[in-house]
Specification:
about 260 residues, Rossmann fold, SIR2/SIRT2 'Small Domain', three-stranded antiparallel beta sheet, elongated, binds 2'-O-acetyl adenosine-5-diphosphoribose
Length: about 260
């Protein structure tokens, strides 16, 4: 089943000219970053409304820093791109993949070498002072005091979108445009539970794209919005698709 679907994905990719990927936390699991939902997910242990809602952060920023953000900083400092991130880079180099819309804030697509990455939920690389607005690189944040503070005394917050906050309008409009323009959308490692990001595959499908899902387990897209779903780990699945693509379709073209 999976080899057949890898072959089908390779064939669809070979025929595509404008691929867009929508990625989620699952693509970074093999880099050592836990997902939010599914096996080992962060929201199995913590209530997102208690730790990832902007009202919770404003009520008690020290608690959110201690329980959630400090651990994220440690994990993201150590994380490196995996085979799935690299697979998307390879598709970009082939001239196939044009844009990645990622819900992740870990910067691993850029670290891998992808160029056009829309960070739908912001990024963790920067902190902003709630008092003076100064931006500070997350690696430079002094973690001795919780919550960490700017030199002006203001509290720092990550430049990520918390629940209850707006998506940056330019990210939303660029993502919608990219979804509407693609001929293939790869949906990788997302539970498709959080809107409006989860709407992008529907926009792509309605505009005529083939929607291919790569995920560890079925999601609301499976058998619905996705034309087909490859259920497995993202890194191994990418390696199998790319091997089929190089072996069968690029070989055909050369021959
Ligand atoms: P989720 O954690 O909701 O979903 C990750 C999906 O990846 C799950 O369906 C897992 O089964 C799957 N998965 C796990 N390991 C995998 C692997 N090795 N290969 C392939 N798939 C794997 O992550 P997102 O959909 O990105 O928002 O979550 C969306 C948003 O919810 C996040 O951006 C974040 C979160 O709350 C905010 O913080 C605003």
């Amino acid at each position: 089943m999976i080899p057949d679907l890898c072959h089908r994905a390779a064939r669809d990719i070979a025929g595509a000219h404008h691929i867009v990927a929508l990625t989620g936390a699952g693509i970074s699991v093999e880099s050592g970053i836990p997902p939010f939902r599914g096996p080992g997910g962060i929201w199995e242990k913590l209530d997102p409304m208690e730790y990832a809602h902007i009202d919770a952060f404003m009520r008690d920023p020290g608690r959110v820093w201690r329980v959630l953000i400090a651990d994220m900083k440690t994990l993201l400092d150590q994380a490196r791109p995996n085979d799935a991130h690299m697979g998307l880079v390879r598709l970009e180099r082939m001239g196939k993949l044009k844009t990645i819309i990622t819900q992740n804030v870990d910067g691993l697509h850029q670290a891998a070498g992808s160029h056009d990455v829309i960070e739908f939920h912001g990024n963790f690389a920067w902190q902003r002072c709630l008092a003076c607005g100064r931006r500070i690189s997350t690696t430079d944040v002094e973690m001795a005091e919780m919550p960490p503070r700017c030199s002006c005394g203001g509290i720092l917050r990550p430049e990520c979108v918390f629940f209850g906050e707006m998506i940056e309008p330019v990210n939303l409009s660029r993502s919608r445009d990219a979804a509407a323009r693609c001929d293939v959308m790869l949906v990788v490692g997302t539970s498709a539970m959080v809107q409006p990001a989860a709407l992008m595959p529907t926009i792509a499908r309605q505009a005529g794209a083939t929607v291919i899902e790569i995920n560890f387990e079925p999601t609301p897209l499976t058998g619905q919005v996705a034309h087909y779903s490859l259920l497995g780990e993202a890194g191994a699945t990418f390696n199998a698709i790319l091997a089929a693509l190089e072996r069968e379709f690029q070989g055909d073209r050369k021959g």
